[in-house]
Write a structure and sequence with these properties.
The protein is 32% helix and 15% strand. The protein is an alpha+beta fold and 265 residues long. The protein has a four-stranded antiparallel beta sheet, with helices on both faces. The N and C termini lie far apart (46 Å). Residues 88-89, 91, 210-214 line the site of flavin mononucleotide.
Length: 265
């Protein structure tokens, strides 16, 4: 099946589509770019996105579904630094569910993150039912009580057991879980990339998030009870998770990390 169509009138043979293609799918022909027999397009959409004259279209990444960049303001250096550094892990949430429309916006950004070889393959389970989250907290605590790193999570166990504090999901009203085929090799990397996009986007909707690492550990164990609890389809695995909700507090300052450790060669 032919994937690309080229307008001979519009094509100026600048070859940008060919130079941009990461998988050598295209070559220049008499009338413009042509597909190389036996090559595989990885659906990245660069050929269509880079064309200065909208001469090329690709069925795997149609021009009609690409958004013109002119619609977006460009962040300057200071704005970009603020955008990235202002994301914090939120561990205090308002007792208010996030509307489904907003949750959908979050996962819709997450699916746009870069993935290994554009493999994508990540699906999302959005948990709106607070009782399921409470049950997952209970199961997580039971599981980490018997885990080899019990000492590291002693405080979480104690605050749950003694004070009934949700030390796993921090009282967040919603949880977003990524799942993937069991045999998708880049599943964890792709999921981390996706949820990082989600975390960075959340503040623009007035939302906060926090990585659910303890839950991830519990969910990654063979035959984890979390698979049944969250109705994960046969053949899929849980690859990552973040809790989401409206933050109770806001921060006045950006924090620093360890000093930069870098070698230039
Ligand atoms: C892979 C991963 C797992 C994490 N797991 C948890 C967790 O289980 N509970 C929690 O409260 N925070 C968790 N965090 C959040 C980190 O503690 C947090 O990112 C770090 O302290 C830096 O703070 P900041 O995110 O506010 O900048 C996790 C973060 C990452 C990247």
């Amino acid at each position: 099946m032919s994937l690309i169509t080229v307008s001979e009138e519009k094509c100026i043979k600048c070859e940008l589509c060919i130079k941009e293609c990461p998988v050598d799918f295209l070559k220049m022909g008499e009338k413009g770019p042509e597909e190389i027999v036996g090559a595989n397009c990885n659906q990245c959409g660069h050929c269509v996105a880079v064309c200065p004259t909208t001469a090329i279209d690709n069925k795997k990444s149609p021009l009609a579904q690409q958004v013109d960049l002119k619609e977006f303001p460009k962040l300057d250096e200071k704005q970009a630094e603020h955008f990235l550094r202002a994301r914090r892990s939120i561990r205090n949430y308002k007792n208010k569910s996030v509307p489904r429309e907003e949750l959908t916006k979050l996962v819709n950004i997450a699916r746009l993150a870069p993935t290994a070889g554009n493999s994508q393959g990540i699906s999302f389970v959005v948990v709106e039912n607070k009782q399921l989250i409470e049950k997952a907290t209970e199961i997580s605590i039971q599981m980490i009580e018997d885990s080899p790193f019990r000492d590291l999570v002693e405080a979480a166990i104690r605050s749950y057991r003694e004070d009934g504090v949700d030390s796993i999901f921090r009282g967040a009203p919603n949880l977003i879980i990524t799942i993937a085929d069991k045999d998708l090799r880049s599943a964890r990397d792709n999921s981390v990339s996706s949820l990082t996009y989600l975390e960075l986007y959340a503040p623009s909707l007035g939302l906060g998030s926090c990585w659910a690492g303890i839950f991830e550990y519990c969910a990654s164990i063979d035959n984890s009870p979390m698979l049944k609890l969250f109705n994960i389809p046969e053949g899929k695995k849980i690859t990552a998770a973040v809790m989401v909700g409206y933050p109770n507090y806001s921060y006045q300052r950006l924090v620093d990390r360890n000093p930069l450790d870098v070698i230039f060669l």
